[in-house]
Amino acid sequence: MTNTVKTVNHWIGGKAVEGTSGNWGPVTDPATGAVTTRVALASVEEVDAAVAAAKDAFLTWGTSSLAQRTTILFKFRALLDANRDAIAELITAEHGKVHSDALGEVARGLEIVDLACGITVQLKGELSTQVSNRVDVASIRQPVGVVAGITPFNFPAMVPMWMFPIAIATGNTFILKPSEKDPSPALKIAELLAEAGLPDGVFNVLNGDKVSVDRLLEHPDVSAISFVGSTPIARHIHTTASANGKRVQALGGAKNHMLVLPDADLDAAADAAVSAAYGSAGERCMAISAVVAVGSIGDLLVEKIRERAEKIKIGPGNDPTSEMGPLITAVHRDKVASYVTGAAAEGCEVVLDGTGYTVEGHENGHWIGLSLLDHVPTTAAAYQDEIFGPVLCVLRAETYEEGLALINGSRFGNGTAIFTRDGGAARRFQMEVEAGMVGVNVPIPVPVGYHSFGGWKDSLFGDHHIYGNDGVHFYTRGKVVTTRWPDPSDAPAGVDLGFPRNH
Ligand code: NAD
């Protein structure tokens, strides 16, 4: 690595802290393939130092007033708003997605900050008066303590914001372990939180890999783990953190289907399929990766998708004319390509082959073009696996029932969509499909902040979805207080060994 390579460290106890483990990871600019940054990879001792800082901060933050917390969150919201472009530029530089897409990610993260600014409403609690003679009962929710968030590369700003605004608004202190592939947006967010007046140690960024994750999972002072990433790691996180007595929400991978009924507006369906399959080069957990065409519309729909896909401009994310950027790493690009090169042998019809694509002047970037596979059998690897790249599979079904059975047969159940003009069919689909998030004529049904986000089956391990009411519940624990204040005129209750009854 040359001297021009930037160094990304940790943020612990309210300040940047240099990595001392001696281990560094490379961060590349996906558009050029050049290593631009080295990121510190924390040792067990550094994890322990971050947890100690967060534990210490919890002593005061956990009992801070709601007014103090929301004042800081409102200031943070304003700073975030003013820094949308700066954060989006950091995302593009390390992730590769186009600037407009990066801005969209920041905007969706900001929605959760909005929700956290209004936490006063959600923490009101419940009170029942006179449940028995002079007895009142209050239900309150209190923070759980030090919580950790482990996040994936594909949304380096939004996914952390699915977690920490609610965690800190409810009085917890937070340790973020971002993806080591694009760590810089997390550090920028830490600086903005500090500028907003967040006390030291309430929000910490610990950069690292499996070593730091595994230490967080076993650390006795970490009460809860939020994870978003691939299914195998989500399963590991859920099993290990649960065995260590922590509450855990672990969101995994996806294979999202879009069912297109014969009565659908095919132009709208083709627009939606192309946007949702190839946006962010398919590196979205809510990307549509399988279109199920029902009845005789298949050939026409595939033609409409092909026409649109061929027009997408691929290029560096910081070029305003680019619609799709590169993939995160060359290794990932090659893996994505292998699904396309192996597709024909598995019985798929290759309509568009994006392998071997390159961008002039950026030949070392992690490029791949758009691929479209038709008549994909369910046995093909391109259908079975989450590819996480710009590869769209089209499957054919004779009837709604056949299409539904195909979707429900998937091991994933993150998001899904139906395209139809038939309200009855759409309603039936929303009731019958096995997925956590459903779109009706909406291809990427990412819920707004005041609802919650989460899948079914291998797309989520744990009981809680992320953000919304589920987020508030996840980051707080219930306490119920039963109170009797006797009236001076009351006769002494006397001893009664019977189980207390309300009367
Ligand atoms: P990943 O699972 O490789 O990494 C996620 C996080 O886990 C990173 O912080 C990484 O450092 C850590 N990690 C990786 N390997 C680990 C190991 N062996 N032990 C402990 N920690 C480990 O995921 P990714 O490649 O960064 O992100 C893409 C994946 O995330 C896709 O599968 C995508 O579907 C999924 N994702 C899901 C959602 C959702 O809401 N369900 C949202 C975004 C991304």
How would you describe the overall organization of this protein?
- Helices cover 36% and strands 22% of the residues.
- It is α/β, with parallel strands linked by helices.
- It folds into two domains: 269 residues, Aldehyde Dehydrogenase, Chain A, domain 1, CATH 3.40.605.10; 185 residues, 3-Layer(aba) Sandwich (Aldehyde Dehydrogenase, Chain A, domain 2), CATH 3.40.309.
- The strands form six sheets. It has a seven-stranded mixed beta sheet with strand order 15-16-17-14-13-19-20, with helices on both faces.
- Strand 9, helix 7 and strand 10 form a beta-alpha-beta unit.
- The longest helix is centred in the N-terminal third of the chain and has 19 residues.
- It is globular, with a radius of gyration of 25 Å.
- Nicotinamide-adenine-dinucleotide binds next to helix 8.
Instruction: Count the E strands.
Output: 23
Q: Domain count, please report it.
A: 2
Strand fraction: 15-25%
Q: Quick one: biggest sheet?
A: 7 strands, mixed
CATH architecture call of the largest domain: 3-Layer(aba) Sandwich
CATH topology (level 3) name of the largest domain: Aldehyde Dehydrogenase, Chain A, domain 1
Name the CATH superfamily assignment of the largest domain: Aldehyde Dehydrogenase, Chain A, domain 1
Mean pLDDT: 97
The N- to C-terminal Cα distance equals 76 Å
Q: If you compute it from the alpha carbons, what radius of gyration comes out, rounded to the nearest whole angstrom? A: 25 Å
Structural class: alpha/beta
Low-confidence stretches: none
Number of helices: 16
Broad shape: globular
Percent helix range: 25-40%
Spatially, the strands of the biggest sheet line up as: 15-16-17-14-13-19-20
CATH class categorisation of the largest domain = Alpha Beta
Distinct ligand kinds: nicotinamide-adenine-dinucleotide
